[in-house]
Amino acid sequence: MSRNKETHMDRVSVCPCHMREYGKKPSAQLKPPLFVMMEDRMPVSVMCMLKTPKTGRKLKITAENITQTLTRSWSDQSNSTFSNWRSGEPNNAGGSEHCTAVSFSDAGEWTDENCFYQLYFICHSGSSLASSHQYHFISESKSWSEAQTYCRQNYIDLATIDNMTEMNSVMNTVNMSYDGLAWIGQYDDVNSWRWSLDHDDFYLKGERNFRNWNHQPDNSDGNELCVYMNVIDGSWFDVSCDIYLMFVCFDGRENASQKYVRVYHRKTWSEAQTHCREFYTDLASVTNKTERQLILRMFVEITEENDEDKVWIGLHRMKLWSDQSNSSFTHLVSWIYPEPDNGLSIPGLTGSQHCTAVSLKYFGHWTDESCFDQLPFFCYRGEIIYLLYNEINK
Which of 119-123, 319-323, 340-344 is the least confident region? Predict the structure, then answer.
């Protein structure tokens, strides 16, 4: 493939764009200080704007290869694991392609490129994040799905909340005119599991979907978002990510002496993930019965005492948002004790509370409720993305 070697940058312009229309494919989210592309929310209008420069079709984004395994990192230290590689990519051609570009002649798919090539690029200004949503309180009571439909027809979607600044904006929208519960866009899907090592090239067809539940998952306390494996019989259980367990790492490095590494230090799931990514490749993915047996053989001496029979694996999930945002904001102190509880504390409702509401009576604290309850709700619109284009002369 021939490549332009332009070096002179003659113009930079700033283009505001309102997020009013969404494409069908996962796409983008903003994280300071740079624009992180193709993650979860990319408006169609922005995709069209990215295609407008006349002197090239490819834009550099800020992911760089940090190991010779499947691990890559983002310039802004985001922990995004989303990828959209073109078939056959990344291939590290010539051993020198360590940065990532989006090819708009290939429907926005990604390629790895030499970091010294002169390409268009996209920056993100963190200043626009302070108040990225405009919230609207709708006093008419509806079920969660009815509220979602209303917001999508008249605004953008049910409210997504990314930080405490936005939580305060939601509260100010009501201005003490209402003190009950109101829907926001967060909901719980107990089947939305994904592996910590989330690279398509790592998995053969069907391997992502291998499971070995034992009458699980049940999300019994409303916040069971991580998975441990019982090393006596290999069965899986969903549980709170905050308990301390041993764990198994996957080592995909070329010089690795073994595929799986057992770690006896007890950590939370996120701490275990960090440890595995720092010293190996990632928390273990278990994609078939053979891999399950390999892990079980590592723990033949384990007995059912003091939680020694439980180890973290890489399967986990997040609370989801109606607009497909991957916001991880929960501000745990804002959950009303013992919320979320998935109806555990209410006779007859156990296992039936999957949608999130804000309690205006209790200072905006969150609670999980039955999605069929009739409540007022918050919509949002007016999110703005700022894109920088750098046009390069041939």
Answer: 340-344
